[in-house]
Amino acid sequence: MPGKTPSSNGNEPLENGVRNGQDVEMKDGKSKGKKGVKDSEEEMTVVVPPTKGSKQSSGGPTPDTDEDTTMDEDKVNDEAVKVDPVAQTVAEIKGNFALLDRAVALFDARFSLRALRSISLFRKRLDPDIIAQAIVDTFPAMVTSGLAAKQLLIAIGRENMPLGRSGSSEMEVDNESSAKTPKNGATKEVKEIIPEIDIFLGILIQVYLFDSKQFQRGAEFSKYLADRVQSLNRRTLDSLSAKVYFYYSLFCEQLAPQPPSPQSPVVSIRPTLLAALRTAVLRKDIDTQASVIVLLLRNYLSTSHITQADLLVSHTQFPENAVNNQVARFLYYLGRIRAIQLRYTEAHEHLTAATRKAPSSACAAGFSATTTKLLLVVELLMGDIPERSTFRQPTLELALQPYFLLVQAVRIGNLGDFETIIADHADTFRRDGTYTLILRLRQNVIKTGIRMMSLSYSRISLRDICIRLRLGSEESAEYIVAKAIRDGVIEATLDRERGFMKSKEVGDVYATREPGEAFHERIRACLALHDESVKAMRFPMNQHRLELKNAQEAREREREMAKEIQEGDLDEDDLGGDFDGM
């Protein structure tokens, strides 16, 4: 239409809100009606950032845009340069102190566990300077707290550093705020450091000394830290004290002579661990109790004191509410004890539970592999063949390769291949602690071979059995076959005069009680897992008491209200609505 500018409708090119090289000015709102609205819609433009195509078409960015981009890049680079890794690590360490304060204030151990889990985030960045800076910034120059701080500084070789809060820019702000004291000369009271912070810093020193392989120094400091924990009787220290004893035991295991030598330092710390266990039981310290029991079992097994480990299990009761990781370790050591004692059924139950309770994260791959190796050997000793899917797990495939070859030899019943595999992988089996158990499998290999032959042949001579199993004489073959028949391994008869073994016909296995028993075993395992999962659930401590207190106060208010209504002091208007009565 003439007299009107046609609308672009988005077809004309726009560059950063500019049409025809001129900025569009907004009207002062004098137009009225639909025409004014239409004009305002045409004249208002949306400012959008230029795209790559628009930049290229316009011949590059404008000088203002270039300057803004350069300033932003410089700002980002300055911020990246200002980040100090030492100050960041110190801030992360000191950030856990708030969790420890909340754990003490609310009497909730979950905050202490969160602080311990955070150590893995900055563990690789720990060094004496960072730990010393955290200690100096935390502890004031007081006589009572200064003694504990000095011991921490001595452990990392920084005993000459002065205590106080005068070293960082962050503390300058605190000094400025603290300078606002009353004019009458009153000074601000210094907050006393709780023991949880002291022990947490001690654990950081233990972690650093262990990672830097200063085992002798770490053992001496751990002894001091264990004595300090023993002198304190605070339930908020339970999870921290358990970690202190854990590293104390690790340091002693690394000192020469190492286990299984009877002169190893692990033998000398047994009285300390037993005293800690006795104290933990009296104080009802569940975390320390569970950790020390596991450490004692590990200690006894490292020096092959199986009888003492069995006596410890029989005379102590492992806490039911222990953390899942400690339960998994306890079940593993208990399964190892039962396997050595030839109680394979109990060992299989404990090891199966340990594999199910093991964490699925990558950091627990070593424990899962160790437990699975022992479980495979126990299954072979029970006469069962493990499933092939066990060896196909990506995290365990390489570690279980020697055991896969061992299972193949046992399944086939080839005694020659079995002896060859033991000779080739003897060092691996000794390192895993399963060598002596694997040597017991020789009889199982022979029994498996006899079972395979009884299924393949209806009649086979003792001479052929002796040749196939590579036995020394026919008398040995006759003895082994007779024992297999007596134990129920095979269903056959032995003809000594003619010198052969005659197999019986195999019936339908589904007509027996074996499938029902296997199904019942699986149901029992699922029910036990459900019960343990319910017991492992964690709730805030003393929460039920708070709920009971609130319910009791509500009932008292209802009684007072009902009493006032009966006396006529209250009416419906005072109650703020309809009231039907009590």
From TrEMBL:
Keywords: Proteasome. SMART domains: PAM, PINT. It comes from the Eukaryota. Residues 1-77, 165-184, 552-582 are annotated as: Disordered. One of its GO terms (biological process) is ubiquitin-dependent protein catabolic process. One of its GO terms (cellular component) is proteasome regulatory particle, lid subcomplex. Residues 1-11 have a biased composition (Polar residues). This is 26S proteasome non-ATPase regulatory subunit 3. It comes from Sodiomyces alkalinus (strain CBS 110278 / VKM F-3762 / F11) (Alkaliphilic filamentous fungus).
